[in-house]
Specification:
The structure holds two protein chains of two kinds. In chain A, about 0% of the residues lie in helices and about 55% in strands. Chain A is mainly β. In chain A, strands 2, 5, 6, 7, 10, 11 and 12 form a seven-stranded mixed beta sheet that branches. In chain A, strand 8 and strand 9 form a beta hairpin. Helices cover about 0% and strands about 45% of the residues of chain B. Classes of the chains: A mainly beta, B mainly beta. At the A-B interface, strand 6, strand 10 and strand 11 of A face strand 3 and strand 4 of B.
Chain lengths: ~110, ~110
């Protein structure tokens, strides 16, 4: 089975900190995605990538950046964390047009 | 915006079949119907997908109407562990279109 691993299950960071959320997949998938999920708002796409060193903005990219230096790893970066970035962050990967495989999520709290 | 409509919530007795409906009246010829579920505090999990024929796997069956404007996900013998939010998504098979998650249906399996 494809595995998508997010490095941390829970994180607590301070306002203004630079935060890195890491995601690794083990099945050579081309496409990787970062979502955030908030009560009442559902899953919202932040950034995605179709190949190494490629990135595309999703619906809510403000305050975030991403890095994809290797095919298996897609990092989400919060340049200066703010309290409104407290959320569940979900990474997913897929090969071509097949369905997503999601990681278990990282619950980030910014205090 | 999500291209599907689903009931907000449903209940099902343990051991009985759970039938989750989804309307996708604007679906186009290239779009597949995907179903995911999300158990509390976990990432969404792929269940099944189909284009026009009915599909079955070890988790569920997917029944798509002949006009493709609606579908039903069937969990044949629901268990307490099937309690989750179920998402119905339509997505173009062509490369480049992302999944858009709506609010889904919250299924509660009752003992």
């Amino acid at each position: 089975d494809v595995k998508v691993t997010q490095s941390s299950r829970y994180l607590v960071k301070r306002t203004g900190e630079k935060v890195f959320l890491e995601c690794v997949q083990d099945m050579d998938h081309e496409n990787m995605f970062w979502y955030r999920q908030d009560p009442g708002l559902g899953l919202r796409l932040i950034y995605f990538s179709y190949d190494v060193k490629m990135k595309e903005k999703g619906d809510i990219p403000e305050g975030y950046s991403v890095s994809r230096e290797k095919k298996e790893r897609f990092s989400l970066i919060l340049e200066s964390a703010s309290t409104n970035q407290t959320s569940m962050y979900l990474c997913a990967s897929t090969l071509g047009s097949y369905g997503y495989t999601f990681g278990s999520g990282t619950r980030l709290t910014v205090v | 915006d999500a291209k599907t409509t689903q009931p907000t919530s449903m209940d099902c007795a343990e051991g009985r079949a759970a039938n989750l409906p989804c309307n996708h009246s604007t679906i186009s010829g290239n779009e597949y119907v995907y179903w995911y579920r999300q158990i509390h505090s976990q990432g969404p999990q792929y269940i099944i997908h189909g284009l026009k024929n009915n599909e079955t796997n070890e988790m569920a069956s997917l029944i798509i109407t002949e006009d493709r404007k609606s579908s039903t996900l069937i969990l044949p013998h629901a268990t307490l562990r099937d309690t989750a939010v179920y998402y119905c998504i339509v997505r173009d098979y062509n490369y480049g279109q992302n999944f858009v998650f709506g609010p889904g249906t919250r299924l509660s399996v009752l003992p």
